[in-house]
Design brief:
The protein has a three-stranded mixed β-sheet with strand order 1-2-3. Helix 3 links the parallel strand 2 and strand 3. It starts with a helix and ends with a strand. Helix content is 50%, strand content 21%.
């Protein structure tokens, strides 16, 4: 019984290390913390675009991966593209913006 009690803490430590390793990021998957940060950035960019009356916010999609924002969708002018990109770049935490928007 004493042997089982002394092994238990080691098993707990191993289990915790395995759980932490499962939260680590890879090239194609963000960690839990990065995912939360990206979600916050996406929300802030969407809010900035929505609050700008010159943009058709329902036509612009926003995705974020590791603080890089990708804008996609269809807009009516180059000015709308420039405005959306500038708004996204001004959001705290955004490292860069990838513009995949198209003119229609």
């Amino acid at each position: 019984m004493k042997h089982a009690i002394s092994v238990f803490p080691a098993l707990v430590v191993i289990g915790l290390l395995m759980a932490l390793a499962g939260c680590a990021s890879t090239d194609t998957k963000s960690s839990t913390g990065e995912y939360i940060d990206d979600t916050v950035i996406t929300t802030k960019v969407k809010a900035a675009i929505f609050n700008d009356s010159s943009l058709s916010s329902s036509e612009i999609n926003v995705e974020t991966f590791r603080s890089v924002v990708q804008l996609s969708g269809f807009v009516s002018s180059q000015a709308e593209i420039d405005t959306a990109v500038a708004l996204a770049q001004n959001v705290a935490g955004v490292e860069s913006v990838v513009n995949s928007m198209r003119l229609r």
